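Module 6 notes. Inverse folding takes a fixed backbone as the condition and produces residue identities as the prediction. Think of it as a translation problem where the source language is geometry and the target language is the twenty amino acids. Below is one complete input and output pair. Work through it position by position during the lab.
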């Protein structure tokens, strides 16, 4: 069995009738959205908030109506993927480029569940390149600052162009290998003018559902 499918589908069991649900982005939440669409067809009523154009497209194609984020005051539950998760349930997100909207929706959520396969569990964050979303107007200045800080920046590209996020920003990936103090790094990055958001999601996830073959492990934040 596909580990991503097992984790993604399991999360749907947490969705109750009448909830406002944040839908994450990626290949694991794909399975969440497909399963949720089945339940919606069977009569489950939810309001869904999307974290990316890609997710909106998929959800709407499957018959899940997406409500604009500005039309809700809070989200009951957000289900999203992650690129790395440590033992404290801190993580790196943004491999799929949707970190800004993912963080905004997560921060308005009463509960956040991440769905991951076993390979995403780490002892220390940082092997996965840390995405930093920046304003295009100053990407060169921000890049130079990140280099000065020895954070090994690389501007993300798609084909031969700079990768453009749904919010019309660029992404600079930091190749760090190991993040000793994610809180300090988050503070440093956020203090650079033009940095819109980082892929460090600290103290945000309440629950992580890990798929491993046909097994699922549910880890609750202690
Ligand atoms: C997108 C994300 C994704 O949730 C993350 O990249 C995990 O994706 P996948 O489930 O495809 O491994 O943060 O911005």
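Target side of the pair, the amino acids:
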């Amino acid at each position: 069995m596909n580990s991503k499918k097992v984790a993604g589908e399991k999360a749907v069991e947490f969705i109750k009738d009448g909830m406002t649900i944040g839908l994450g982005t990626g290949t694991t939440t794909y399975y969440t959205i497909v399963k949720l669409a089945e339940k919606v067809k069977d009569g489950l009523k939810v309001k869904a908030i999307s974290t990316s154009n890609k997710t909106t497209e998929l959800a709407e194609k499957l018959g899940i109506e997406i409500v604009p984020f500005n039309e809700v005051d809070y989200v009951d539950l957000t289900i999203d993927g992650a690129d790395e998760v440590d033992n404290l349930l801190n993580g790196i997100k943004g491999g799929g480029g949707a970190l800004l909207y993912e963080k905004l929706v997560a921060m308005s959520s009463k509960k956040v569940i991440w769905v991951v396969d076993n390979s995403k569990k780490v002892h220390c964050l940082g092997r996965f390149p840390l995405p930093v979303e920046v304003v295009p107007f100053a990407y060169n200045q921000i890049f130079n600052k990140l280099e000065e800080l020895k954070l090994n920046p690389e501007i993300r590209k798609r084909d031969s162009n700079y990768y453009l996020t749904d919010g019309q920003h660029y992404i600079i990936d930091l190749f760090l290998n190991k993040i000793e103090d994610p809180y300090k790094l988050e503070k440093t990055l956020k203090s650079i003018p033009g940095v819109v958001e980082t892929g460090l999601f600290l103290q945000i996830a309440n629950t992580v559902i890990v798929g491993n073959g046909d097994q699922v492990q549910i880890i609750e934040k202690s």
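Reference fact for the lab report: The first strand starts at residue 20 and ends at 23.
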